[in-house]
Backbone:
């Protein structure tokens, strides 16, 4: 790696020391409730993770608690057991009664996938799925462990989400892989069968025939039907889903320890997110159309999809939504949708969110009256009990529980802390509301509505602070008010950080989202600069020490700002930058976004026209690269399928040729998100050091911004 090794000594207050200190807080990635005696005592199982920087891996562990109702109807909590590390677990799911737990794990020696069932007596079933050979690898990306879970409750728009893909999640070094669309592990109501999704079984590649070796004999028998199949191209679902091609629905029958692949799913559909229908007579699943070819699915909830029912008796597969409902579903389904569906006792219940500012992002039922502002995420709802996490830009995630009040008394909720986390000293934050000037051409247009930005600031007397400006990626994503250790670490280093939710961000209504279409590279750029100017006028910030820090489409905005105002920003650090729009037509897994972003229609059979390519190039930062004077750091993953790393390489060469200070970090195994414990830490250290080098040391009072053991040190998590 390019930065100093973790095994080496770290100076107090260095970027590496700050990042290590603030990444020690665990995030809860999963929670499950089980009933104990007489229904008044409950067991809470929580799975947590955090980066283990010395060992350069993700540390996953479980915590167990006891909950019981007190005499006043409230809840009391106590730790039931010591924490235990989780090894080799890929998926887990408790049965409806809580008496069994299914665990999919990977055997480290053989690499085989094992599906096991555990109960109070120990392990009751163990099936080697790989040895059976009924299917390929089980899809597990839906529960991919992350030290900081991706935003699952940030969307507060009741309207369908705009039907265009997203380049990347909003955060910087925030999630590991975004939850995939296919993975599931579902118990039947009889608790005798398990439903999951796996890759279709493909013939094993044969060894090459030594026909050209002297003396070698030609095979006596030859299967002409499979000749040439070894190198046949098979489509996949793009970024972060490169091993996902043809998913199939699979069922494990525990009584016979047998696995079957369900038949009857139409060939033009890829199934996922499966559940048992009432009575275990069928399977409900989400099906994605994949004809005539697949487009990138990660972070792209707009892909055409529908909800289907497969009858296990007749083998008939029915589409449960008519064309109008299907259109809404394919625009709103997935991680970015405003519509949430849950099966409760065989009844489908739709839960619609209402628009909330980013500072209150979270599930509406999980936001108690009078609670501190921040981000609330609902982990599970069982019986009348809710389990959630809450965090803020200066407060790591805390685990809380609450009981639903009787009907008619929904608010306020009384939350009981399970694992409480202290506020990080030295960091404060607020929400800025930015109102664009009214356009003279269309004074009534929705494009003039307000947007927001989150400002994180060091809490000390060293103002004015240098400002790091961060427009999010997407572009249809959002910076919600959650805990981000990298942003808090920048504050501890003495920087103020501005997270800009320009118009087009999620959570502010469909009108805001639609306003960005055809205005990419113009409106988003102007909004970001408008937020910067307002922050400089209203806050104690240094206008002569400004920097840009962004990824993907956020980097696209940053590059435009560098070209528009070459003397305004003193440093820039970018991840997976978009710089040349027409070059992405043949290299990105979402070529449709290139057209949609400019307001052009897209169809599968479309080929680019000269005037369209010219329009894309005109909106591309690479066309204005000659105006850039600011030192630029570029961080890219060689395996990026969303934005080719050659985008950064082309920009790097142009900047170097023009004498602009530029540095390129190339991560051989990195994807678009540059995820992974070691990669994320290295990217942060390099970006922070780049900012310090070109903006100068923020502190003026001579004190260290991040120390260990002193008054400003962060309290260690329990």
Residues:
């Amino acid at each position: 790696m390019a930065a100093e090794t973790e095994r080496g000594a770290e100076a107090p207050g260095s970027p590496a020391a700050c990042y290590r200190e603030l990444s020690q807080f665990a995030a809860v990635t999963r929670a499950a409730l089980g009933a104990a005696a007489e229904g008044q005592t409950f067991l809470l199982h929580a799975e947590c993770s955090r980066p283990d920087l010395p060992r350069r891996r993700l540390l996953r562990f479980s915590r167990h608690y006891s909950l019981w109702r007190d005499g006043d109807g409230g809840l009391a909590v106590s730790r039931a057991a010591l924490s235990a590390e989780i090894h080799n677990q890929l998926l887990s799911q408790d049965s409806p009664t809580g008496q069994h737990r299914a665990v999919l794990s990977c055997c480290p020696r053989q690499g085989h996938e094992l599906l096991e069932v555990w109960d109070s007596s120990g392990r009751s079933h163990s099936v080697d799925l790989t040895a059976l050979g009924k299917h390929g690898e089980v899809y597990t990306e839906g529960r991919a462990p992350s030290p900081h879970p991706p935003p699952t409750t940030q969307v507060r728009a009741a309207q369908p989400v705009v039907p265009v893909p997203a380049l990347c999640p909003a955060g910087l070094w925030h999630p590991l892989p975004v939850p995939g669309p296919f993975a599931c592990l579902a118990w039947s109501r009889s608790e005798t069968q398990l439903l999951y999704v796996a890759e279709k079984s493909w013939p094993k590649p044969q060894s090459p025939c030594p026909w050209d070796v002297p003396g070698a004999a030609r095979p006596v028998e030859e299967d002409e039907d499979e000749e040439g199949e070894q190198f046949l191209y098979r489509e996949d679902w793009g970024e972060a889903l490169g091993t996902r091609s043809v998913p199939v629905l699979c069922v494990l029958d525990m009584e016979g320890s047998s696995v079957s692949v369900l038949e009857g799913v139409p060939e033009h559909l890829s199934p996922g997110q499966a559940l048992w229908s009432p009575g275990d007579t069928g399977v409900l699943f989400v099906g994605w159309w994949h004809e005539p070819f697949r487009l990138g699915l990660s972070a792209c909830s707009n892909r055409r999809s529908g909800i289907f029912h497969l009858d296990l008796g007749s083998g008939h597969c029915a589409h449960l939504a008519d064309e109008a409902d299907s259109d809404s579903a394919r625009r709103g389904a997935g991680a970015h949708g405003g519509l949430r569906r849950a099966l409760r006792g065989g009844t489908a219940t739709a839960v619609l969110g209402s628009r909330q500012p980013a500072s209150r992002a979270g599930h509406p039922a999980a936001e108690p009256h009078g609670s501190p502002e921040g981000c609330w995420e609902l982990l599970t709802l069982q019986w009348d009990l809710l389990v959630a996490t809450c965090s803020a830009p200066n407060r790591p995630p805390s685990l809380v529980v609450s009981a639903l009040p009787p009907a008619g008394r929904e608010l306020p909720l009384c939350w009981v802390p399970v694992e409480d986390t202290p506020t990080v000293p030295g960091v404060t934050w607020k929400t800025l509301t930015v109102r664009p000037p009214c356009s003279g051409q269309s004074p009534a247009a929705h494009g003039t509505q307000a947007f927001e930005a989150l400002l994180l600031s060091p809490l000390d007397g060293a103002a004015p602070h240098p400002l790091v400006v961060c427009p999010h990626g997407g572009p249809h994503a959002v910076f919600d008010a959650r805990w981000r250790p990298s942003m808090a670490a920048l504050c501890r280093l003495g920087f103020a950080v501005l997270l800009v939710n320009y118009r087009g961000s999620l959570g502010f209504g469909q009108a805001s989202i639609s306003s960005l279409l055809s205005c990419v590279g113009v409106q988003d750029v102007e909004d970001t600069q408008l937020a910067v100017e307002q922050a400089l006028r209203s806050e104690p910030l240094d206008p002569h020490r400004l920097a840009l820090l962004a990824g993907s489409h956020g980097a696209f905005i940053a590059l435009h700002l560098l070209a528009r105002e070459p003397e305004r920003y003193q440093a820039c650090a970018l991840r997976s930058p978009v710089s040349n729009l027409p070059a992405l037509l043949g290299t990105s897994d979402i070529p449709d976004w290139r057209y949609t972003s400019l307001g052009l229609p897209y169809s599968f059979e479309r080929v680019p026209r000269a005037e369209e390519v010219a329009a894309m190039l005109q909106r591309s930062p690479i066309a204005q690269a000659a105006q850039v004077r600011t030192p630029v750091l570029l961080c890219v993953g060689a395996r990026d399928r969303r934005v080719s790393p050659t985008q950064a390489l082309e920009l790097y060469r142009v900047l170097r040729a023009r004498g602009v200070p530029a540095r390129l970090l190339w991560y051989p195994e990195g994807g678009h998100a540059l995820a992974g414990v070691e990669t994320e830490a290295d990217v942060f250290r390099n970006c922070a050091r780049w900012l310090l080098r070109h903006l100068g040391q923020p502190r003026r009072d001579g004190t260290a911004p991040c120390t260990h053991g002193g008054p400003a040190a962060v309290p260690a998590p329990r």
Q: What stands out?
A: The longest helix spans residues 677-695. Residues 122 and 461 are 58 Å apart (CA to CA). The chain has a mean pLDDT of 83. The first strand starts at residue 27 and ends at 35.
